[in-house]
Write a structure and sequence with these properties.
There is one protein chain. The chain folds into two domains: about 5-105, no CATH class; about 110-150, no CATH class. Helix content is about 35%, strand content about 20%. It contains three helices and six strands, in the order αβββααβββ. The strands form two sheets. The protein has a three-stranded antiparallel beta sheet, covered by helices on one side. Strands 4-5-6 form a three-stranded antiparallel beta sheet. About 15% of the residues are buried.
């Protein structure tokens, strides 16, 4: 049911994503384990759709992208990680746009350093084995494990 043409386009979506991902990853090491998953879904409708007989199958595409697409305000899914499209062509067009935008991103060393400094001033997580501390406005507070599970909590 999925044509070779759609399969080839899906592979191109994955290739473009990966190229953009590794480019952006040089500047910011954040990512999610499912980043870059491209899935094609064959839709046969719901029980209600088929009530009067078989329906024409549909194909939709989901691109899971934390790095490449979620911070792209010029696209309708801004801030989301899962991006759904009604066709492989729509998904490929969106990925081409995200890829182009990502590959054009080339901050200076100073911009990267400034962003990192600003982020650490606002919010910093320091891990010490299984203990996590939060640094906000110069004050450190233990946030993990929760107080009720700490040996020093005295049952509070």
């Amino acid at each position: 049911m999925i044509s070779q043409d759609d399969l080839d386009k899906a592979k191109e979506i994955a290739r473009l994503h990966d190229e953009a991902f590794w480019h952006l990853h040089k500047f910011d090491g954040h990512a999610k384990s499912g980043d870059g998953n491209v899935s094609i879904e064959l839709g046969l409708g719901t029980v209600w759709d088929r009530q009067d007989g078989p329906v024409e199958p549909t194909i939709s595409v989901n691109i899971y992208s934390y790095v490449v697409a979620s911070d792209t305000p010029s696209y309708p899914n801004f801030g989301q990680r899962s991006h759904y499209f009604e066709s492989v062509d729509q998904a490929l067009d969106a990925m081409r746009g995200w890829h182009s935008e990502a590959m054009a991103y080339n901050p200076s060393e100073e911009d990267i350093a400034e962003a990192n400094e600003m982020a650490s001033d606002i919010w910093e997580i320091v891990k010490d084995k299984t203990t996590i501390y939060e640094l906000k406005n110069g004050e450190t507070t233990q946030v993990w494990p929760p107080k009720r599970f700490r040996d020093d909590s005295n049952g509070e």
